[in-house]
Design brief:
Distance between the termini: 22 Å
Number of strands: 0
Structural class: mainly alpha
Shape: globular
Largest sheet: none
Order of helices and strands: HHHHHHHHH
Oligomer: single chain
Number of domains: 1
Helix content: over 70%
Radius of gyration: 18 Å
C-alpha cells in the first residue's frame, strides 16, 4: 500500500514538475514539446499493451479475448463520451486570450475541470495496474503516465499565462490536476483489490483509455507542427525502451 501511495504521488507530481519546467522555459518550441510528448506516447503505448492488455488476456481465462476486447472498447467509448461533454484540451489552450478580462475565473475553472476529467482515467489505469499484483508492470504503467504528465504540465503554462491567469493561479491549477491523478490511482487500486473478479475487464478498460488518449490527443498534437518524422521516431524510441525494460524486469 505504501508503494501504491508513493506511486500515486509520483504520477500526480509529474504534472507539477512539468509546470515548474514550463515556468522556467515559457517559450518551448513546438518541435521540442512534440518530441517529448511523442516519446511519452510511445512509453504509454508499451505500458498499455504490455502492462494492461496482455495481463488482461492472461487473467481472463477461457473468455479472455472477449473480455479484453470488450474492455478495450469500453474504455475508448468512455473517453469518447467524455470528449463530447468536455472541450478538448488543445481547444481550451488555444482559447481567445483577448476575452479574458471578465472571464478569468470561469476560464480557469473550465480549464482545470477539463484537464482533471481527462487525467482521472489515467490515474485509474495506474491504480488498476497495481491491482494485478505485478509490481514491475504496475510501475511501468505508472512511469509511462508520469512521463506523459511532464510535457502536459509544460505546455499548458504559457497559454494560461497569456490568457491573463496569474502565475499563482496557474500553479494551483497544475497542482489540482496532479491531485486528481493521485485520487484516480487510489480509486483504481482499491476498486480492483475489492473486486478481483473484474480485474481482466478493468485492465483492458484501462488499456483502452490509454490507447484512446494516445491516438486521439497525443499523436495528432505531435503531428500538427511540421515535425512528424521526429515525433514518429521519438514514439518508437519510447516504445522500445519500455519493451526492453519489460523484458529485463521479466
Amino acid at each position: 500500500m505504501q508503494l501504491v501511495l508513493l506511486t500515486a504521488i509520483g504520477v500526480g507530481g509529474a504534472t507539477v514538475i512539468g509546470a515548474i519546467v514550463g515556468f522556467l522555459f515559457k517559450k518551448i518550441s513546438h518541435r521540442f514539446s512534440d518530441i517529448v510528448l511523442s516519446f511519452a506516447a510511445g512509453v504509454m503505448l508499451a505500458a498499455a499493451v504490455l502492462g494492461l492488455i496482455m495481463p488482461s488476456l492472461e487473467y481472463g481465462g477461457k473468455y479472455g479475448v472477449i473480455i479484453t476486447v470488450a474492455g478495450i472498447f469500453a474504455g475508448a467509448v468512455c473517453l469518447n463520451l467524455i470528449d463530447k461533454l468536455v472541450p478538448h484540451l488543445h481547444k481550451l489552450v488555444g482559447s481567445d486570450s483577448e476575452a479574458h478580462n471578465n472571464a478569468d475565473l470561469s476560464k480557469v475553472l473550465l480549464f482545470v475541470t477539463a484537464i482533471a476529467i481527462h487525467n482521472l482515467p489515467e490515474g485509474i489505469a495506474a491504480g488498476v495496474g497495481f491491482g494485478s499484483g505485478n509490481t514491475a508492470q504496475a510501475l511501468m504503467i505508472a512511469g509511462g503516465i508520469a512521463l506523459q504528465n511532464i510535457p502536459e504540465g509544460m505546455v499548458i503554462i504559457a497559454p494560461m499565462l497569456a490568457a491573463g491567469v496569474t502565475p499563482k493561479k496557474t500553479f494551483i491549477c497544475a497542482m489540482l490536476t496532479g491531485l486528481v491523478e493521485v485520487a484516480g490511482t487510489l480509486i483504481g487500486y482499491f476498486a480492483v483489490s475489492i473486486a478481483s473478479a473484474v480485474l481482466p475487464f478493468a485492465l483492458a478498460f484501462a488499456g483502452g483509455t490509454m490507447i484512446y488518449v494516445i491516438s486521439d490527443e497525443m499523436i495528432p498534437e505531435t503531428h500538427a507542427h511540421g515535425g512528424e518524422r521526429g515525433a514518429t521516431y521519438a514514439l518508437l524510441v519510447g516504445f522500445c525502451i519500455m519493451l526492453v525494460t519489460d523484458v529485463l524486469l521479466g
